[in-house]
Each structure stands twice: as structure tokens, then as C-alpha cells.
Queue: 2 jobs
Job 1
Amino acid sequence: MAEVREQIALAKDDARLRGVTNPTVALVPTMGALHDGHLALVTRAREVGDIVVVSIFVNPLQFGEGEDLETYPRTLDADLAALDRTGPTIVFAPTAAEMYPEGRTQTKISAGHVGTLLEGRSRAGHFDGVLIVVNKLLNIVQPTSVLFGQKDGQQVFVVSRMVRDLNIPVTVEVVDTVRETDGLALSSRNTYLDERERVAARVLSAVLEAAESAAVSGIDSLIAAAQAASMGQPLVTLEYLSVVNPATFLPVDDNFHGRAQVLVAARVGTTRLIDNEFVYLGG
Ligand code: PAF
């Protein structure tokens, strides 16, 4: 902790010497296994911050029983090389013992009701674990901005809400999802997919595309089109398909019109993937 603070202080001194009067710090929190989606966050971080800090930490608190904490891809050398190619970056890659010297924190942060829906329903306690680590990272790094990818839409919502609820002095920047040419959202977990599963995983973005096209005709058309797009893929089990009001993250009712967010989670083989898209709901 002291070391990363020292690195940031030195980088700020350096920036001041170059004439930057009030150097800003942009933090990109990651769990490593960096892909182009993460690198898009780093690119944006360079636009909003004079100093870029990337944290790499597979946070045990956000993994439930039987989830992939042990097998989650850890590729630190490749991550450092990839970051090196993007420009000067302060990398903060603490161990679990450094982050949680007394084991699980006694202090808890609850993501509230929204934290129990969708991802939170399948992954009990997941968002509480995310909020604890994000809070700790914000306190350690004290950035001006913190960047998240839109792919983790519910994470973006609960983190933004925590920042507002707790008056944390940071700006949350959200960066668009980066996709493969066939539409699959980039995710570190895509590396779990075998060849057939990789082809089948295209269903998630196909569901969102179908939802987007049908949204203008209303919620029933949207759901019917999205469900139809999810059919006929034996390797894919749809876990949820939900349409929420982006302001509350609660499911929209039949009378809702305007900007809505469609979220999908599916198991492709044994891999659980998520995706989401904003649509205009008419009807
Ligand atoms: O999105 C992630 O990779 C993680 O949830 C985060 C924000 C780095 C917290 O561990």
C-alpha cells in the first residue's frame, strides 16, 4: 500500500515539474487476465488522468462457494507486458494477505436490494465483495476518476450508487463494451470456452441484438424476440433475461417507455457469461 502511494506521489511530483498544476489520477480496477476491453479502459484513463493506475487483484470476497476463484486466469507477466505497450502505468498488484491482513473484513458494505437481483441472485454476496474491494482500492489510490466497463452493467450501477451514497470524491467513468467481430463481449472468462462453445457464445449478443430491434414495439415483443434468438443452441442455457430501468436497476413495468437496459446471463457449457445493452423501449 505504502509503495503504490509513494509511486503516485512521485508521479505527481514529476507531472508538476512538467507544468501540470493539479495532477489527476485515473484508476482502472481489474482482476488481471487483461484483454482489449481492459485496454480500452486504460486508453480512456489516459484521457481523463495525468497518472494512470491499474490494479490487478483477484478479489476472493466476490467469489462464492463453488465458483472459479482457484481457476480464474492469472497472467501477471502478460498483463504487465500489455500495459507496458500502452504507456506509463503504475501497476498495483497486491496479494490477498496485503489486501485482507485480518482475513475477511469485519466491516461490510451491502449493495442493497439491487445487489440481490440478477447477478446477485446467482452469486450471493458477489456485489458486497466487489464494493468492499473497490472501496479499499479507492481509499488506497485516492484517484480522481475510476473506470469500469459497461459489460458488467450491474457492477457499474452498484458502484456508482455506492459512490453517490457515501459521497466518495471520485468520478465514475464508464467505457463501452468491446466486442469480437461476431458480437461476443470480451471477457477474461471467454478463455474457458472450447471451440464449439465459443461459436455458441455468440447467442448472448444475438439475444441483445434481437431485443434491440424489437424494443420499439414494446416489452412483450422485446422478450419474445430475445427468447426466440436464444433457442436452438444446445450448449447454451439462458439464466436470465431482464429489462430494467437504468435509473433504478429495477425491472420495467408494462407501461415503461424510454431508455431501458436489457441484461442477459447464460451458461455456455460450464462457463457463465453476461452481457447487456441499452435499448429504446416503445410500444
Ligand atoms: O470487474 C472486475 O474485474 C472486478 O469486479 C473489479 C471491479 C476489479 C473488483 O474486483
Job 2
Amino acid sequence: MNLVTSEIVELRKQLDTHNYHYYVLDQPLIDDAQFDQLMARLIELEALYPSLITADSPTQRVGGMVAGGFERVTHLTAMRSLGNAFSAEDLLAFDQKVRSGLAVDGQLEYIVELKIDGLAINLTYENNRLISGVTRGDGTQGEDVTSNIRTIKSVPLVLRPDGVEVPPLLEVRGEVYMPKGEFQRLNREREEAGEALLANPRNAAAGSLRQLDPKVTSQRSLDIFLYGIGVYTGIELTTHGQMLEYLKKLGFKINSQYRVFNQINDVIEYCRGFVEKRHDLPYDIDGMVIKVNDLASQQILGYTAKDPRWAIAYKFPAEKAITVVEDIFVGLGRTGVLTPTAILRPVPVAGSIISRATLHNQDFIDEKDIRIGDTVVIHKAGEVIPEVVSVLVEKRTGEEKIFVMPEHCPECDGKVLRLEGQAAHKCTNPHCPALFREGLIHFVSRDAMNIDGLGPAVLISLVEAGLVKNVADLYKLTMEEVLTVPRMGEKSAQNLLSAIENSKQAGLGRVLFGLGIRHVGVKAAHIVARHFGEIMAVQQATAPELVALDEIGIKIAESIVAYFAVPENLQLSADLEAAGVKMTEEQQEKDENQLFAGKTFVLTGTLETMSRNQAAEIIERLGGKVSGSVSKKTSYVLAGDEAGSKLDKAQKLGVEILDEQQFKQLIAE
Ligand code: IVH
């Protein structure tokens, strides 16, 4: 091995270990900046020596688009589902059946696991490497979603056996899920964008796994718990519990809340405990799974036509409550979307007192025919967001009032419009004080400029006093001005001014996020900032240049371009810069070798040894540009397999066409 190869191998090993400690064990060994440094070095080396890129390198989690939908794949062994138990009696009956099937009277071990509410997935490893991830589908055939599974950071691309043997072919099974926090974040984003909301984390996880663009999946922070093995040979395992520990030793994430009992009554008690405890978990569970622990006994019991006889799901009762809609209030978000909220007579549901529920939009209200004064059934969608399930029409008195979205903004009286094809109503006044207020609140928030001491009340009084007309004005505030805020003492004023001063150093990533550009979340803002390094470059970036970045999709790209096409927005950036706000970010280093300076590439088709993003990164590092469409100005078209119309156009225009091999030769020179 030469020096470069051994450095690459060492970096991959370190990055895999840190990924494992961060995503599987939840015990990071180093901080994010150190991790980023290692990753940047690996990206740098792989860009210089692309022939050394391997599919299981930690840089390769996000690949290219899946062309033509997902392939259907037949499972090597069927993926069964489970029969259901809804009560203690059902579990006692299950215990009786198991006992008679095994002809045991005495002790019998059960293992109880959480029933994760996501979707079942089968992962296949050959010679330690992940080769496929397939959904359960109908149990016999599923969809090959490997490219999306690879984006889940807790899924090892390469197994990391800790003192245990690994069979050459191994199928492991588990549940892919979306954590509750991620589900909330995603729905918040969708609500702001006027898009339909996802009903619960399970649907959200399923939708995310079925994205044709792995970039989208990678932004969704999915996770996985493994709970079973399909095909395996040559491993000595006696109990299901041992199997879980074996999976753990291979580097998989298993759920640690499993317990072994030898009394069905203890099983029942453990299950009941989670009816309440589940609300404190960061992910949804919809029940518990009870399995006979001994693997040989599982074999003896076997399966009915549908389900295993050795396992059963204990399903929790869905928690609902009945209450009254006392009023419907319309609030305004940062993007001007009007969101109706039901003010409810307070009731306890799933671990907390609920006094309001989002009604999302007019369609939601109309579909369920929710009226002010109605008696309604509510639940928590995805165990988190209170939602109205249905109206108890029989409780109507005739006094109920039908709700209609106001035609004028409740804040500024501006005209409210519903855009065609969208669920959301919006205030059309670009100067609506609510938009401005919400925008300010966002600008100072933790993930943006993180200015402590600037709560909504303080901001509102600064705005009302005419002291803050745009976010740049925050940086012009004086001591005397801040002291005009009611109840503001000298010390707090001093603290506030120094928090504002400190925030100037936050960096371009936070500024970009803080500006509240539609669809631009924290992650995207930082990716863009790090890539372009300074505000001018971001302002001049084209949509294809932005899309060429990992994890930046077309919606984000177009929104950034549209934002900086508006003169007032350009002025605002200039004002911030003039006020001393740092508008730069440490940029990823460019290569000294500017082989492609002045050259424009178009990438098409599937490349064999690298993703298109990877190729784009190499081109940019070497000073070239990547564009989305072929024109006379295109210097090269890099064409992989199944290249389509772009290749035809290149041929027509006489643009030089490179295959992957030629491209690699060029960069090796
Ligand atoms: S075992 C043959 N264990 O529940 C036994 N399933 O209703 C196969 N699930 O399709 C399943 N957590 O998607 C098992 N700890 C767990 C589970 C679990 C969630 C899901 C899985 C399965 C469904 C059956």
C-alpha cells in the first residue's frame, strides 16, 4: 500500500468508528468540527485519486438519482408480519398456545421488545459489505431502496465485527423509522411551504425511503433498529437475546429496552409500563413484541399461514380524547402563511394537557367539517402534534359556527390569497408586520444568529419604537435606544448589546439561514456557505451550480436564486456587511491544480466508480464549472451509462464527449 492509500484507509476507518460512536452508540468521541476535518481530508484525497473511491467509503452515502423507479426484489426468506394482542387476556391465550405447542408446563422464556412504528427492511451483507436494502413489501417481494438505506448513518456500510465471526452472506432485519423531532421539523417546513402535511412519522419514514433522489432521503435523518436475522449460516446462536447481542457486536443499532422474562405476568406488566412510558421515547412505538426466546423452540412452533406462532404484537390502545372547539384562531408564520388553530377546552391526551390543535388549512377544516363549538375527538399525530380526528356531529346544538379563512390579514389587513394548487392561504402584503416580526424572531433564533436576550417582546417593542426596520438595524442599536424598551435594565441592555456584537462573528452559514430564504434549512445554509465561502459568490450562484452540491435539491437552489434576484434582499446583505456582520465562511479548499479553469462540464447518465456529485466536486476543485444543460459553450459532456438527450445534444453540437475512463485519465495527468 502506498502512502495515499494507507492514509485513505486509515481515514475511512476513523470516520466509520466516529460514525458508529455518534449514530449507533450515541456517544461521540470527537466534536463535529474534528469530524468535519477528517471528512474534508478524505474528500480531498478521493478527489485527487478518484480511482481509489470505493462504494463503501463514508463519502459515498449519498449517491445519484434512481432512474426509472425502484426495482422489485424477491426476499431470500419471506418477511412475515405478526399477529396482534390487544389485552392481557390475549397475551395469556398466546402463552397457553405456545406452551401447548412446545408441551411445556414449567419455565418458558419470553423476550419482549419495543414495537417500533416504522417500516420493516431487509439488509443483505456479502463479505461484510452492505449490498442491498429492500422494503418488506408484501412479505415475498419488496422494493430495492439500497441507495436510500445507505444515507442512514447508523447503517454500517461495512460491518465492524467485534470478536465475532460473520457469515459470508447475512440478511438482517429491522425497522426504519423517523424520530419524532425530525417528523415535527419536516412538517413545520412543509406547513411553511404550503405543502400537505404528513400524517405521522411512519408515513413520513415510508415516503422518505421511496424518494428517487437519495439527497432528499439524506436530509430526513431516518434511523433504524435491527431486531432479527433472515438468512445466516455458521453462527452459533441459541436465543433471540443472543442474536440481538450478536447484531450489536457487528456494529448494528439495536434497541436496548428489550427484557427477558420467564413469567407471562411479568411480560404483561412490562408491556403495560410502556403505555405511558412510550410518550417519553424520542421515536414512536405502536406496541410491544413478545417472542419465545429460545431459537430451537421458535423452529418447533413455526408459522401459521400468515404469522409466526412464536411471537405476537401487543398493540397499545390509540389514545384519544373528547373536547370542545372553543374558537378558531388564525396565526401568521414567517412566510405569510395563515394557519388556523383550534382553541380547545383543555384535556389530557397521551401524557400532556392539550388546549390547542393545529387545523393546518382550510381544506383540512372543510374535509372534517370542523365548526366553532363542535365537540371533537382529538389525538396526537405521531404521538406529538395534537390533531382533530373527527367531529361528533350528534353533539351539535345548531349554535356551531362555520369557519372561513379571513379575506384580510388579521395583522395588517392586507389581502389574503390562496395560490392555485396550494393548500395554504397567504397574506400578500410584502410589508406585513407579522412577516417582518416572525422574520426577526427567526433571524435572532438559536440556529441562526443566536442572539440571547432578544425575545419576541423585546423585538416587538424595538419594532414599534421604529428602531428596527430590518435585521441590519439590530446592529445599529445604541444603549439609549435599547433602554427605551419597557422593563429593560442597564445590565440587561449591556448584555443584549454585547450578544448582538458577538453575533457579528456567527458566519455566513448562520446568516444565510437567518435570512429566512424559503426551503433553506440550517443544513442547506451551511453547505452553501461552506462551498461558496462568501456572500458575493452565493448571490451569483446559478441553480445548476447549487444543485451540484451534495444535499441541495432543485427547490432550495431555485429559492436561493430567486431570493438574491430581489434588489432589496441584495441591499439587506450589503447593509449587514456594512454593519460588520461576517459574511464569509471557511471555504473548502480549492486545489492548486486548476486543470479545468474556464471549462464547463455537463454530467449525464450513471457513472460506474463515482456519483455525479463526486465527479462535480472533482471538476470544481480543479477550477471547472458544472452546468445542467448542454450548449455550444459546454467544454465537455461526461457521459455515463444510459445517458439520454444531453448526450444526443452534445453530439449534434459537436461538444467533446468523455466517458468515465477518459475523464479519469484527464484528471490523472
Ligand atoms: S419481529 C416474524 N420485532 O412490526 C417476526 N417486528 O406487525 C417479524 N416491528 O413487519 C417481525 N418492531 O415491521 C418484530 N421488535 C420488533 C418490531 C417489529 C417493529 C414491525 C415489523 C413487522 C411488524 C409486524
